[in-house]
Amino acid sequence: MEKQNAVVLLLLFVLLLADATTTVNGEDSNTKKGFGTTGNKTMQMMEIAAFLGHVGSKTSCGYGVATGGPTAWGLCYNHEMSPSQTYCDDYYKLTYPCTPGAEYYGRGAIPIYWNYNYGAAGEALKVNLLDHPEYIEQNATLAFQAAIWKWMTPVKKAQPSAHDAFVGNWKPTKNDTIEHRVPGFGATMNILYGEGVCGQGDVDSMNNIASHFLYYLDLLGVGRGKGGTHDVLTCAEQRPFNPNTKIASS
Ligand SMILES: *[C@@H]1O[C@H](CO)[C@@H](O)[C@H](O)[C@H]1NC(C)=O
Ligand SMILES: *[C@@H]1O[C@H](CO)[C@@H](O)[C@H](O)[C@H]1NC(C)=O
Ligand SMILES: *[C@@H]1O[C@H](CO)[C@@H](O)[C@H](O)[C@H]1NC(C)=O
């Protein structure tokens, strides 16, 4: 019960933020093509469920035998538990220099990693995250704004954002089709985590994220039947958009 209240509160919060995100994405908010405002009502709810699926799975402290099952334990952690490094990439020392002492480990509702991601998110949100990456961990609004920024922003210019891949704005190229990348929830995992979970068949790390999406589809009244066929719901057979990049998958 408590868990459901938390989800309802979270949903209200996310919907309140929806207007702000269209600006983050550089779109005119009147076009209604932002986060949770694209397509018909069903599609809008599905996108919220997809976003929450990522949030729930990435912040979960649940495990297989926990009460309510592993999907009932999202929004537990607000930062990476055991960072093995500070995630400072010197390649970006001119654009997004690491602040001495700062650590850019995973933080937020959909965790961001690395100085260049903190730098880019900070620019978009107009907050100095390079000097203060800890803000994302301390401020829940920022934790969700950074997550929505990540959802709305392509990793590379020629590629779709998770948002575009999910709502169908993205039209796969011939290469995408050859490499089994199709619009849907699976493509959002591909964009956000790449080879960390995709293109390896039905691995647990991927299925865990997909099952959170289905859980939230049920919780929001859409129903898991809208999750899509296996090739749309998962990225089991998809080749990663960006093989060998440093997109951490936590
Ligand atoms: C909502 O849009 C989806 C595709 O974006 C479509 O499949 C579905 O039929 C639409 N539902 C209604 C009620 O119009
Ligand atoms: C949290 O972040 C938001 C968005 O940047 C900001 O408006 C708010 O003042 C911050 N809250 C605190 C307590 O710093
Ligand atoms: C398609 O994939 C091939 C092989 O990976 C690559 O050489 C080519 O540049 C790609 N074409 C486009 C348009 O991305």
UniProtKB/TrEMBL annotation:
Keywords of the record, alphabetical order, are: Chitin-binding, Disulfide bond, Plant defense, Signal
Q: What organism does the record attribute this protein to?
A: Vicia faba (Broad bean)
One Pfam annotation reads Glyco_hydro_19
Record-given protein name: Glycoside hydrolase family 19 catalytic domain-containing protein
- Which cysteine-cysteine pairs are annotated as disulfide bonds in the entry? C88-C98, C198-C235
- The Glycoside hydrolase family 19 catalytic domain covers 30-225
- Signal peptide feature range: 1-26
Q: Which GO terms describe its biological process?
A: carbohydrate metabolic process; cell wall macromolecule catabolic process; chitin catabolic process; defense response
Check the record and name the InterPro entries matching this protein.
Glyco_hydro_19 (IPR016283), Glyco_hydro_19_cat (IPR000726), Lysozyme-like_dom_sf (IPR023346)
Q: Name one GO molecular function term.
A: chitinase activity
